[in-house]
Amino acid sequence: MCGIIGYVGTRDVPSVLLGGLWRLEYRGYDSSGIAVIGNGELIIRKVPGKLSELEALIKRQPVSGGIGVGHTRWATHGLPQENNTHPLIDCNEEIALVVNGIIENYLSLKDDLESRGHIFRSVTDSEVIVHLIEEDLDKGLVDAVRSTVKKLTGNFAFAVISVNDRSKIVCARHDAPLICCYNSKEAAVASDISGVVSIFNDVIYIPNDSIVVLGKGKCNITNFQGREVRVTPRKVTIDVKDIDKGHFPHFMLKEIYEQPKVLHNIINERIVGGRVTLGSELGISDAEMKKVSRILIQACGTSWHAGLVGKYIIEKFARIHTEVDISSEFRYRDAVLDSDTLVMAVSQSGETADTLAGLREAKVKFLKVLSLVNVIQSSIHRESDGIIEIMAGPEIGVASTKAYTAEIVHLYLLALYLGSLRGFVSKVDLEEHIAALTKLPAQVEQVIRLDDDIREIAEEFSDARDFLFLGRGLNYATALEGALKLKEISYINATGYAAGEMKHGPIALIDHKMPIVCVNPRSSVYDKMFNNIQEAVARKGIPISVVTKGDRRTRGISKHSIPIPECHECVSPILAVIPLQLLAYHIATLKELDVDRPRNLAKSVTVE
Ligand code: M6R
User: Fold this and answer.
1) Which residues pair with 45 in a beta bridge?
2) At 367, which CATH number?
3) Type and span of the H or E element at 12
4) What is the whole-number distance in angstroms between the Cα of residue 36 and the centre of ligand 1?
5) For residue 6, which of 1, 117, 127, 169 is within the disulfide window of CB 3.0 to 4.6 Å?
6) What positions carry a catalytic annotation?
7) Structure confidence by residue, pLDDT tens digits, 202-215
């Protein structure tokens, strides 16, 4: 959500800004712009729409200079039109600002600023920041930023440059992500590491509630009160090819195809000498883990679905009562949490605002938080007591795929770990589970090989208006996830449901035009699910079933069936979701939609 980039140095500034914005594009946006200081004045280029349009504008009207900031805006306050696009400038056109976040008290600040004569060019909440800084510029840019941040409520990360000092970028962050890099020749700031990946070897994760003054060979970090903050830079561990599509037409397809490799790496790393190891940052001792009497998993979207699978598996193997909450509900519902409750956050990005707020809510109540995250050094990583890195590698496509299966496999490993610790999983059971997990990468590979068959099914249904997805037990979450994948990238109305709930209402939707994706691999609820498919067939629904290879019963009553390999029930949510990811992908591409950047969505949802 909104991408920030800033650069000062010897390279061609517009190219660095544009390159960074392209790599931040995956975060989601609907307009973009840059500001460069050349010949002592701010030169602004901005457009609503795609980055290619900004690039074309800069080609038609070139800019040059030694310092600049750039932005991709995901509209919250005000339409995606030129006046609302960042960079935003002050009344005197001295400073340019790019912001990610939401300023909750902007209306009262704006009233005050307008009463003091400031002219607003946009209807954004962010514009108050540039005018507040302007009011205090006589103290110098850094102090003006410091006094401004104290007046803001909400969450924000921003970078500002001034025509009066072309050597530095001043940045600040409160509850929104921001990183920076520097060496003797150049310095940059960005929303995340992908913005600067090809330029720097080291990165600084800017601490929350701090202000950074950044220039060539200079990076001064202070907290909002002005006290110096020391931060050790870290090595940049991703490179350009990790965030490149390679020979794939879309990131989403690349990431679906990467799943065997990701699972292979996880299993190699996490299962050592016949035991589960969850990494060096678990942060919660075995003794503390033994005391846990309840787990509360809070997450959003796809990560919430992974949490639902986690609930079934943790309760089954560790016998710990486990609840799963949508973070935006958890954070406001004043849940009953006692001291033996372990709160878990599950998040690919590690920056999802509601999940982060849920984590903080738990910490206010003095509870330990263990998080599953993909992005290392993200806010959720840094604020948790313990973390398990899900090891999916950079995920760029807005539709989460490989992070989902990496989350599930880690929740499975956690369940085995807790189960062994508490004596519910014997050595023999553990061996059986490890064998099931070890087979998984090759089995996922087999499912991916069905890609062409799945595309044919997609061709038949790409014009459907509605879809139903049904599952039970562990694959109830698979049905929800399949529906979410389809709706977010194809814009088809898709409903995921627990199949047993159908006759309590949704069955009324079924008619001869309704494709119904039925997830029914062999499992403890196979017969129950089979009956539910029969009920759908009796109402002329069109079942497309995910079944275990060789299962003739469900195949016999389905219009299409997609076979997954024979597997342990607990890994079936991983195998069964792959066809649903591919189905959604192909339907969306057949409809010629922007699969990696679906409308209205952002990869990293950093606002509430
Ligand atoms: O980064 P997170 O895992 O916290 O993100 C949570 C959701 O925003 C995310 O899973 C979203 O639902 C995806 N677009 C689903 O594909």
Assistant:
1) 34
2) 3.40.50.10490
3) none
4) 34
5) 169
6) 2, 603
7) 999 999 999 999 99
